[in-house]
Amino acid sequence: MTGGTIKLGLERIQQVLKCLSNPHLKIPIIHVAGTNGKGSVCAYESEILRRSGLKVGRFTSPFLIDPTDSINLNGDNIDRETFEETKTEINKIAQSNQLELTSFELLTAIAFEIFAKPRFELDLAVIEVGLGGERDSTNVCETGNTLASCITPISIDHQAFLGSTVSEIAFQKAGIAKPNVPILLAQQSFPEVRDIVRTRASAESCDLLEVRPYPVPQSSIEPLPPLPLTPWDGQLSVSSSSPKTVPNLLSWSAGFQHQNAATAATLAHLLRTHHHPLKLLPSLSEKITDQAIIEGIKNTRWQGRLELAEYKGSQLLLDGAHNGASAKLLGDHINSLDRPITLIIALSSPRDPGELIEALDLGRLSWPTQIITTNFSIPEDMAWVRPVSPDLIASHIRPHTTQSTADSPVIKVTSTPLEALNHAISIPRTPDELIVICGSLYLISDVLRIIDNKEHMSHVE
């Protein structure tokens, strides 16, 4: 049986995995934690590894349309039949052992069991942490099958579960450190993150490396800047005969995705040069080429993150930005477009609307901005998820707006994503106007279902 609550801890997931003969230990994995960008890094890294000729599993969350979205086998989501068969098997085991798994624990167990199935012949899997790190149900693998750990930018998020300060949150996320497994740390905005991760890495005898800042080329013909691994305090030298570079041929145009791409490229270089992953999977040194990195990053697609879509002839930009840090990056991107914007926004409780609106900094836009607040559907088996009232969001937006007319109000409050979309396309607009949808992946999920005409929400039970 499963429950619709968040219960951090490893006891239940470890028990059910033991009953399944420990599938999580049967395949090499890369473990990725962080607040922002971890899903994007997983997407980039998986594609790089696929372009290297490896068969790659990928587990990410939350799913957008259907639970099968979370489990990817070499570029394709798991088929419904295999998913349902595996879910039924694990539910029976949980019931017979009186284990009340959470929905995420069940989904995690399904992923590990599928990745270990011999018929899929996977070489490795990229695993995204669900919440935090140390007590997350993905944190069950061991040194013997973990190739590397990666921590993307950390900021304030999920305080009710991880702590109220960046240091407390960083401590939880750095809990994915495993003895002697190298950790790659992405560029961080808060200096205390580096100190916390360094301490936890040292306690586990982990080599700790950082992603260096680098200039982003402006065209595909410019030379690419070197991107070598940067050892912490010089305790590790990882190099090769030629500079390793991050490609600029990105399918995602926002500058902040260059940083996620840089993290994935550096992680790929770590995998092909560091002694620990090479001990577990020696073929990485030859398979991961510069060309594989370039092709992987150029061809990555990641649904719901800077995703362009169309609805009734209007262009949409969907992005799951939901906290201050990610909203600032999205705001930077919107500002760089220099085109009229209609913004549709919903938030999950207890997120602070003021923090997100302030981070978006809509006042800097050179075009008048229409803003529509709305709700989202409550995902089944996730009873703790609640949308912030659209009226409350609107009340936080008003101090940041200066333009309004009776015929075309800056702010419109709606009850559903469908109403919000239909209102957005009804507003008189210029041909280049863009509808930006953000604030919650649950809102993105609803919008994608509307576009696909999917009326019912799929769920794990």
UniProtKB/TrEMBL annotation:
<dbReference type="GO" id="GO:0046872">
    <property type="term" value="F:metal ion binding"/>
</dbReference>
<dbReference type="InterPro" id="IPR036615">
    <property type="entry name" value="Mur_ligase_C_dom_sf"/>
</dbReference>
<keyword id="KW-0067">ATP-binding</keyword>
<comment type="similarity">
    <text>Belongs to the folylpolyglutamate synthase family.</text>
</comment>
<keyword id="KW-0436">Ligase</keyword>
<protein>
    <recommendedName>
        <fullName>Dihydrofolate synthetase</fullName>
        <ecNumber>6.3.2.12</ecNumber>
    </recommendedName>
</protein>
<dbReference type="GO" id="GO:0005829">
    <property type="term" value="C:cytosol"/>
</dbReference>
<keyword id="KW-0547">Nucleotide-binding</keyword>
<dbReference type="GO" id="GO:0005739">
    <property type="term" value="C:mitochondrion"/>
</dbReference>
<dbReference type="GO" id="GO:0004326">
    <property type="term" value="F:tetrahydrofolylpolyglutamate synthase activity"/>
</dbReference>
<keyword id="KW-0554">One-carbon metabolism</keyword>
<keyword id="KW-0479">Metal-binding</keyword>
<keyword id="KW-0460">Magnesium</keyword>
<dbReference type="GO" id="GO:0005524">
    <property type="term" value="F:ATP binding"/>
</dbReference>
<comment type="pathway">
    <text>Cofactor biosynthesis; tetrahydrofolylpolyglutamate biosynthesis.</text>
</comment>
<dbReference type="GO" id="GO:0008841">
    <property type="term" value="F:dihydrofolate synthase activity"/>
</dbReference>
<dbReference type="GO" id="GO:0006730">
    <property type="term" value="P:one-carbon metabolic process"/>
</dbReference>
<dbReference type="InterPro" id="IPR036565">
    <property type="entry name" value="Mur-like_cat_sf"/>
</dbReference>
<dbReference type="InterPro" id="IPR001645">
    <property type="entry name" value="Folylpolyglutamate_synth"/>
</dbReference>
